[in-house]
Every structure is written in C-alpha cells, then in structure tokens.
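Need residues for this backbone.
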C-alpha cells in the first residue's frame, strides 16, 4: 500500500526495533539468592559431610555416628519432644523476649524524654547491668520459685540491656537538624518522639533487639538447666547426666536449628519493617 502524500518533509513512520527480551526479574532474583545460599552454605555442608564420614563407623558412646543421631532426633523430638520440651522453651523465650523489648524501648524513650529520670535511674541501671544474669538464678528461684515465671523473668532481665542501651544511644544520635525542624513546626516532645526520634533510632533499636535474641536463647537454656523438669536445657543436661549421649546430641542440634530459624525470621521481619532505611542506604551507594 502506497504512503499518502502529506507534502514536503514528511517522513514515513518506521517501526522501532524490538529490544532483546530480558530475563524476568523474579528468575534473576531467585538465581542471585541461590548463589548467595551456595556461597554461604558450602562450608557448613562440608563440615556436616565430614562429621558424617568420620563418625560413620564410630563405636564411642560419647561421639556416636551422625546417622544414629539424626535417626534418634526424628524419634525423640518429632513424636514426643516437641510437645514436652520444645514448646515450653519457645513459650518462655517468646514471652521473656517480648517483655524485654517493650520494657527496653519504653525505658529508653523515658530516659530521652525525661532527663531527670535518666540521671536518677542511671546508677541503678548500671548496677543491675553489670550483674551476670546466670549468677542471679538462685535469687530468682527464691523469689519466684521454679515455675515458668522464674524462667520468663530471668530471660527478660538478661535481654533488657541491649535493647535499652541501643535505644538510648540511637535516640541521642538522631540528627539535630531533624529535631530543630520538628521544634520549629511546633511538635510537642511526645509527637517528636513518635514521628522523628523513634524512626531515626529504629535501626539501632533493631540491632539491640537482635543482640537480645541471642541473650534470650542463652538464658532460656541456662534457666532450664537449674531446677527444671522440662525444656531443651533440661533435656540436654538430663541426657548428659544419664550417659545418653545420642539424646544429648539431638538436643544440641535442635537448639541450633531453633536459634538459626529464629535469627532468619528476625532478619526477614527487620528488613520488612526497615525497608525504607535499606532503600535509603541503597540510594546512597548508587
């Protein structure tokens, strides 16, 4: 079909060349994630394989074959241990950790909001902070008994300090220009705390919460090794004292799996909550 005559200077439209098809973003992201997983997990996989091979023919009662440990782990924990030992431990850990997080952020906000409170309570806070939490277990047992309340209290007590100190440091390091801007806009101190200070300190608060998670897992096990009748710590100690080394190793592996899983969940939640922060850092690097 002939082009219509539209006068001098008319140029017939030319179809733009098609750009080559790009791989889907989802597939590319999946490939990157797999590559990172492979790069970070090869050494762990190699160590597990070495453990399997070295202990395959072992007859030692203290270092049994890994195949036997895994078989016993399935029998002990999947069909019985989850309900009797794992669930109580996770309940104590969750309640104590949440209490420590809420109390740590609240106290840190109070110290930032009311300077007199910080000055008057700082000696008490630092006195309690330097006390090793495991040493206080006998006192907690005397005060609260050997039930769940003692375990939750000792977990919360030990996990409080990283959150508290990171909250205070994070709030005090918020950009002064932002605080001056909030003041010039007429924001009250509680409004400034809610809209400027807490978001600005959120990355450091998250770091404190992550450190507190490790402390909480540690105290969960320690509290269950003293005057307890259930939990992962009780199971490991009881198996060791009964010379049931296979059961002891299963408890250690379950504890490692639990800690790894909780850490992965925490990192995922942290990146979702602080996605604006990681977005800003990515723009700064670009």
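Answer:
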């Amino acid at each position: 079909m002939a082009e219509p005559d539209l006068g001098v200077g008319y140029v017939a439209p030319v179809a733009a060349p098609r750009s080559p098809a790009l791989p889907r973003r989802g597939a590319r992201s999946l490939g990157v994630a797999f590559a990172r997983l492979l790069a970070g997990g090869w050494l762990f996989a190699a160590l597990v394989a070495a453990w399997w091979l070295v202990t395959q023919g072992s007859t030692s009662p203290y270092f049994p074959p890994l195949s036997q440990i895994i078989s016993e782990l399935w029998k002990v924990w999947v069909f019985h241990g989850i309900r009797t030992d794992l669930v109580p431990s996770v309940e104590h850990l969750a309640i104590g950790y949440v209490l420590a997080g809420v109390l740590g952020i609240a106290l840190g906000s109070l110290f930032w909001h009311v300077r007199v409170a910080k000055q008057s309570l700082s000696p008490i806070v630092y006195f309690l902070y330097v006390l090793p939490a495991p040493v206080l277990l006998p006192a907690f047992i005397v005060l609260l008994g050997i039930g769940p309340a003692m375990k939750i209290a000792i977990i919360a007590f030990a996990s409080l300090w990283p959150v508290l100190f990171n909250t205070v440091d994070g709030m005090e390091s918020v950009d002064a220009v932002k605080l001056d801007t909030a003041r010039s806009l007429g924001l009250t101190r509680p409004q400034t705390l809610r809209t400027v200070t807490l978001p600005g300190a959120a990355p450091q608060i998250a770091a404190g919460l992550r450190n507190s998670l490790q402390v909480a897992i540690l105290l969960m096990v320690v509290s269950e090794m003293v005057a307890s009748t259930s939990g992962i710590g009780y199971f490991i100690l009881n198996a060791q004292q009964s010379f049931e080394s296979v059961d002891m190793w299963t408890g250690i592996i379950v504890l490692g799996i639990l800690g790894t899983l909780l850490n992965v969940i925490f990192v995922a939640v942290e990146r979702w909550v602080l996605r604006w922060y990681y977005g800003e850092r990515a723009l700064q690097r670009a």
